[in-house]
Amino acid sequence: MRVIISKNYEEMSKKAAEIVAERLRKKPDLVLGLATGSTPVGMYKELIRMHKEGNLDFSKVKTFNLDEYCGLSPDHPQSYHYFMWENLFNHININPANVYIPSGDIENVEAFCKWYEEKIKEAGGIDLQVLGIGRDGHIGFNEPGSSLTSRTRIKTLTEETVEDNARFFEKKEDVPRYAVSMGLGTIMEAKECLLLANGANKAEAIQKAIEGPVSASITASLLQFHPRAIFILDEEASKNLKRREYYRYVERMAQKLKER
Ligand code: F6R
Fold this sequence. Notes:
This protein has 260 residues and is α/β, with parallel strands linked by helices. It is 34% helix and 16% strand. Helix 1 (9-26) packs across helix 2.
């Protein structure tokens, strides 16, 4: 597990974008798992900038999003479909046929979830999964108590998540109570995971995820079992970490090794 602590949101976003760009240059047909929410917006802006400057080609990339609200059509402004096109896909040269986002407004959700898992497999699995984290420690919409081996399915959102996401809606009552989310088993099969977190309101969840026991109560803690998990944090999100200075030291030492 690598923990990278950045000065602020801007630096966190740049570092995350650099990692994505580096993996993409190495493997032009990268299979990228993506997240929504406010955290990755800066990283998406940075990726768009790199693309516009001619440094990043998405033409062979396949993407799989983590989740989608139930009951919202893809053109609903608060849907994650809408979010992804607005914040990333409309601005890069991705082939729309290579974009996969869970559907939240179909009848046979179970069949859809199976199909989604099959599509990930057919694509050869996810190379790099971008993640945010909820205040309750969730990744995707794997709320506390989720099975640690879960696959894509419907989840009921916690009150905390509904409250947090109410900022995107006119009123709290408009926030959907269910979402389709990749499972923890699905996420753990990604070859690499990149979790971004900023702001003091994520500090407690981050400390538990990185330094607490692995537990379904903080589903991000499962990443401790992942062979290639990177956490990129800003100062505020890292402030409760007990080994904060050690993580900084490790990064400095890794840099020294590279420069030798
Ligand atoms: C979104 C997702 C969620 C968010 C998390 C943090 O696709 O999977 O786990 O990453 O709720 O959301 P923000 O970034 O809005 O704080």
